[in-house]
Amino acid sequence: MKVRITRLDPSLPLPARETAGAAAFDLAAASDLTIAPHTIALIPTGLIIKVPDGYFLGVFARSSTPLKRGLMVANGVGVIDSDYCGPQDEVKIQVLNFTQTPVDVKRGDRLAQGIFLKYAPPHWEEGEPIGPTRGGFGSTG
Is the separation of the CB atoms in 113 and 31 below 8 Å? Predict the structure, then answer.
């Protein structure tokens, strides 16, 4: 799949898959910053990515980011839509510092991973509920 990308700083490397079997590519910090304890921060990647129509870019934490850094993707999974690609639409990683101490992020630190996922937009068909009532959350045990 060909994907248009703009580096806001040409010295930044392009995102890359670290191995041939990797489904996702790493997203790295474009600048140094410090994230205060128990706060959310937006980490710039220096990238504008034109997500292909019919896809979205999912931004997930790398498995080592919470364990080694005390950071997690604050909204669980970031969703970058195909129409978020204007000249100011930089992809940023929203992270939460869940530790008691400040966390330093350095330019080039790989904090998240991105993967293009296909989606099907819903076409709602309104009607009566289908099937038997099962109860509320956790009602099956």
Answer: no
